Amino acid sequence: MLPSFCDAGSQIFTPQDLDLMQxxxxxxxxxxxxTCDGAxxxxxxxxxxxxxxxxxxxxxxxxxxxxxxx
Length: 70
Known about the structure:
Elements: H1 2-5, H2 15-32, H3 39-53, H4 59-67
C-alpha cells in the first residue's frame, strides 16, 4: 500500500526531495545575495514548493524555472 501513497503525484516529500529543495534554495539565496528570513527568500521558497508540487522534480529544471524570477 505504501508505494501508491508516495507516488510522484503525492504531496508527501521524501528525504531526497527535501535535500534537493534545500540545495536549490540555498544556491538561489547565495546567488541572489539574500538572507533566509527575508521576504524575497520566502517568496522564492513558496515558488520552489509550488514547482515541486506541480511535478518539477529535476534540479536543473527547478533552477531554470527559478532563474526567471531574478
